[in-house]
Amino acid sequence: MHATPKLAGVGWLAPLGVALASSLSCGTEDRQGNADAGTAGSSGGFEAADSGGSSGATSNSGGSPPVSTCSGVPVGSGLPDGEECTGASVEAQPVPVDMYLIIDRSSSMVDRVTESGQTRWAAVTEAVRQFVQSPDAAGSGAGVQFFPASRFGDDDSIDCDASQYATPNVAIGPLPDVGDDIVTAVEGAAPNGFTPTSAALSGAIDYAKTWATDHPDRATVVVLVTDGYPTQCTDNVDEIAEIARAARETEPRVSTFVVGIGGEWNLAAIAQGGGTIAPYIVSDATVTDSFLEALHNIAATPLSCDFELPEPPPGQELDLDLVQVVYEPAEGDAEEIPRAHSSSDCLVSEHGGWYYTPVDEPERIRVCDCNCRRFGAGRLTATIGCAPAEIH
């Protein structure tokens, strides 16, 4: 790649809204694996988050600092008064998603859901079956592992060993090719034991990062599916959220989605750490349908907030100083994401920004997380030949 790469324009579809936690509580097992009945709130599946709004913060019940979001500036703020950008813009295709499912098989997963009489495990199994066999999932990738790792789920030397979860039961592969293998694996994983969430997430992220390194053209995510508080290895949710945060903020960046079966119990901190704002909360009344919908939403989300500079049309070059990045929400006014100069600018800019990476020999455009977190249905485009707004 030359110091001045060539470009006609770069853009992409923005991700779908991430689901918010509804006000549910659920049964959780104690360190002896017993279930404590919770009190149900809303009987719905999961609620869609409002991805719009101005600069602010997402609430956090886990004790970690809130996750900030930020909006851009008026389009054309970097241009002289009265001048409009007329450069060439391109909208890229969504990034295909590979998901590594790390599914809680602790003893409370045998609790029965309220309407169907199925166990939570049977309802989750049916949702997974429908998802991997769905034509809508074709083109996505999936793999799976379960926690706890030991047979009876009570052996800390095994269950708290992250490497147990870094080795998949079914390796990530294209759907529907690996669908039958995933269904067989879920059917054969009998629920038992405690909830070693920290080790499971850490190992899952290790595997996902290895996969992401080998597949840089795809978005690799971890999907943590659980129905209770962490009860093994550590019960500190902030420590678990930090595992997710580090995965999101180090290369290759891996986001963590969280699906709570039957309740929320501080899962928001883990989802926020993983860069996905809030967990999907699935009520016991609608486990199969709501979990299935969550999986489809995750698979349809082009998560990557950094994008390769494509080759330009013949005879065109990119002037790195004349690229304007604009987010157009499905509803509301378009906004320009100002140009930053490095990731450190993201920490101090009220309106976030985007920057080239690597800085000395650009190959990609990267959007600051505070902008990326609030992208809802809409599109993001980059136009060449126009002076961008810049952070100050």
Give a structural overview.
The chain is α+β, with helices and mostly antiparallel strands and 392 residues long. The chain has 2 domains: 11-16 and 70-92 and 305-384, no CATH class; 19-28 and 41-49 and 95-299, von Willebrand factor, type A domain (Rossmann fold), CATH 3.40.50. Helices cover 22% and strands 22% of the residues. The protein has 9 helices and 20 strands. The strands form 6 sheets. It has a 6-stranded mixed sheet with strand order 11-10-9-12-13-14, sandwiched between helices. It is elongated and about 70 Å long. The two termini are 29 Å apart.
Secondary-structure topology with pairs:
Layout: E1 11-13, E2 19-20, E3 28-29, E4 35-36, E5 47-48, E6 56-58, E7 67-69, E8 89-90, E9 97-104, H1 120-133, E10 141-147, H2 156-159, H3 163-166, E11 170-174, H4 179-187, H5 197-214, E12 219-226, H6 237-249, E13 255-261, H7 267-273, E14 280-282, H8 287-299, E15 306-308, E16 323-329, E17 335-337, E18 354-357, E19 364-367, H9 369-372, E20 378-384
Parallel strand pairs: 9-10, 9-12, 12-13, 13-14
Antiparallel strand pairs: 1-20, 2-5, 3-4, 6-7, 8-20, 10-11, 15-19, 16-17, 16-20, 18-19
Helix pairs in contact: 1-4, 1-8, 5-6, 6-7
